[in-house]
Amino acid sequence: MSGFPGGLDAWLAHLEALHPRGSAGIELGLERVAAVKARLGQRETCPVILVAGTNGKGSTCAMLERILLAAGYRTGLYTSPHLLRYNERVRVNGVAADDASLCGAFARVEEMRGDDALTYFEFGTLAAWEAFAAAHLDVIILEVGLGGRLDATNAYQPACTIITGIDLDHMEFLGPDRESIGREKAGIFRTGVPAVCGDPQPPQSLTEHAAAIGAELRLLGRDFGYLRQEQQWLYWTGAVRRGGLAFPALRGERQLSNAACALAALDALHDILPVAMKDIRRGLIEVELAGRFQVLPGRPTVVLDVAHNPQAARVLAANLGNMGFHRQTWAVIGMLADKDIDGMIDAIGERVTHWLPCTLEGRRAASADFLAARLEARGMVVVGRFASPAAALICAQEKAGEDDRILAFGSFLTVAAALQAHGRPS
Fold it and tell me: Residue 351's closest CA among 377, 376, 403, 315?
């Protein structure tokens, strides 16, 4: 199959229809991906960095990409989900893949998949690798979609693995507690391969699995770490101290932990991907990632954050607390129904004065009425109920004063809609 008349949009519609569960469908397992990967003849001809974690993996991937680009390497980066365009998921040398290269990659996967009903994410992962193979890269960074052990990205053999942190999310697939989730994420570890963990208190299941298979585990606070200083920060590993580092361009205290994970991985790969301190400094200063505590210019201030679980909401609340004074905060919240909505509200409630719940697109969305009921049960001030994030954002902009702050959060879908409504796509 060479393609569809409608180009990329037609291919994406095909991917959604291919598997019974559609684009949002999740069916964990490596058998389908491994089979098609073999038929495509895909091989790891350059180092692969595999990055998992409940929160922070997208930021860590972005830092790795930008540092390696600064060092002159040809990079591939595969992430998910996207905000505005599918092309954002596949980046070659820091640039989103064009429609033609994606359509060509999809066509090759379609030709070789046989009778395997790949999920949307599995098909996309295999196609991303096809795009990377055509570009003859020096290093590939893969962001795990969900969990680790049974995620499609785990079909590829890494030269280094990273788990940024572990908290409660996707429990219907990964298990009811941190021990279960840690065990699933640790499934990306390999015997004799460096395994970086940025969780300050990793589950015992993770450390035990690393020891059982002989992974080279490097723990934040034990083997590497960071120290925040007045106008800069310091990274340490063993007896080595690297001070005078500028704060990453991505905002928020948590980004220092993500940056430390990225540097620990680069240390582990130094023999095959050497990076100079000037490249690290430049990469951290230049890194960009939409929707991660993204502050849009203008007044009132608009903050966008894809936080969709309580751990991420606690980080967001702390970041909001560290901002300058804002008289009132108007929060546009849209979430999926399978998320810990009460935990999210409790984590950030004290930072918000007015709430604007909205309904997202798709059958998994929590309705604005349901969100409003959960907010009102906690005594929160609900301004209205909105059919979309765009409608909620427009209302917030009408009501907020110049000294106020507007926050849009709760899902990638919420942030994407807010970006489009604000007219400032990234």
Answer: 315
